[in-house]
């Protein structure tokens, strides 16, 4: 029996959605920078002048912009027309950047095209089967020896297990932050079709044929107190203790929220 498919209409990802904190790092984008999490992903790509890079799901385009500023020859796709329009505005200083409307399940590029293929916070917007297809397509267009990097959040072990237990205490520590977080989670429930944990991310990689893929959880579980949901909370000693414990592998499985998949073809 085939699994039921759920897909989000691209019109959901309009300018109002994209130009808000519904998407990671909006305030950093407004200041011309990248969020702390995106900065870490940029470093992991090991970019150099002339490296060809494809971003799957460009959003506002700021990540692709910073890749271009490091000398990469950049291409990006998104199935939201507003995302493509905003990204072209963001990348105005790089007129050679190729940003187009396309579906991540059927990338409009030949095999073995790019040195780097990256996707940040897109996988969770696909159902599991479409996620498998997306990863297969990312692998297909990756050059032999190239690097595929994917980030997804949140971690279901945290959001469904730890957070409901910790929420009353966190609300006492900082009610404003928890109110904002609750609003963000409510938005996510409308657009996150399939969220992951360490084990389910390994499974989707395996079904997509990414043999030898490295799947991990970021150890900086408080995002260095440089995120709107951790900055104020991180001032409390109990939260700092949780952050320290999250650097240890057994605790990180439940406390971390930044899931990574990296693969060398």
Order of strands across the main sheet? 3-2-1-4-5-7-6
Q: Span from first to last CA?
A: 32 Å
Query: What is the rounded Rg?
Result: 18 Å
> β content, as a range?
15-25%
SSE succession: HHHEHEHEEHEHHHEHHE
Shape: globular
Number of strands: 7
Class derived from helix and strand content: alpha/beta
Low-confidence stretches: none
| Sheet having the most strands | 7 strands, mixed
Task: Give the fraction of residues assigned to helices.
Answer: 40-55%
Number of helices, where a helix is a run of at least 4 consecutive DSSP H or I residues:
11
Describe this structure as you would to a colleague.
This protein is α/β, with parallel strands linked by helices and 265 residues long. The protein is 42% helix and 16% strand. A seven-stranded mixed beta sheet has the order 3-2-1-4-5-7-6, sandwiched between helices. The mean pLDDT is 95.
What layout of secondary structure does this protein have?
Elements: H1 15-18, H2 26-30, H3 36-44, E1 52-56, H4 62-69, E2 73-78, H5 81-90, E3 98-101, E4 114-120, H6 128-140, E5 142-152, H7 156-173, H8 175-191, H9 198-207, E6 214-217, H10 237-245, H11 249-255, E7 259-264
Parallel strand pairs: 1-2, 1-4, 2-3, 4-5
Antiparallel strand pairs: 5-7, 6-7
Helix pairs in contact: 7-8
What is shown here, in short?
This protein has 265 residues and is α/β, with parallel strands linked by helices. Helices cover 42% and strands 16% of the residues.
Structural descriptors:
16% strand, alpha/beta, 265 residues
